[in-house]
Amino acid sequence: MTLLERLKIETRPAHDRIELAMDLERRIASRDGYRSLLIRFYGFHSAWEQAASNLAPDRDFFERRRKTRLLAKDLSALGLSDDEIIRLPQCAPLMPMPSPAAMLGSMYVVEGSTLGGAVIAREVERNLGLGPETGCAYFKSYGRDIAVMWKQFGTKLLEASSPEADDVIVEAAQKTFDVMHDWLCEGP
């Protein structure tokens, strides 16, 4: 079994738990609910990117995948000022990422959520009429390159795979799902 297959199997319960608890249908039914959801995502990604940036095994690879700027763009389009965005609550404490392998395990969750974001983007567009320039840049983050970006991430993850690293990577992914669940699902 490859590391990607193992991650998919071993994180499935955590993935299903967060998907059920988020109640996306309700949260993207109104602009206020959607804005509140983006605020929670901003708080998670801002804290995660700060923690992960120093551990990224490939800086350029990591930088192309940052989401905070897209969330700030969306929140601005939905009426928040730059000062309000900067003062938004941050997800803390974030799970410890003691190594590049742990960072990649955590990134598996973050990158995987981008795949789901493409589906959410269609619903946001249908329900609220928002596109990448009007408040849905985050969920459309990679646009038509989503499959390519996921494949590149999978390649990077498999390059890091080893008997020692795999347990660290899987454990970090599971912890990231837990932190993400607690942070995203506690808000309105």
UniProtKB/TrEMBL annotation:
Lineage top rank: taxon: Bacteria
SUPFAM superfamilies assigned: Heme oxygenase-like
Gene3D superfamilies in the record: Heme oxygenase-like
One GO-annotated biological process of the protein: heme oxidation
CDD domains given in the database record: HemeO-bac
GO MF term (any one): heme oxygenase (decyclizing) activity
Protein name, as recorded: Heme oxygenase
Organism of derivation: Microvirga guangxiensis
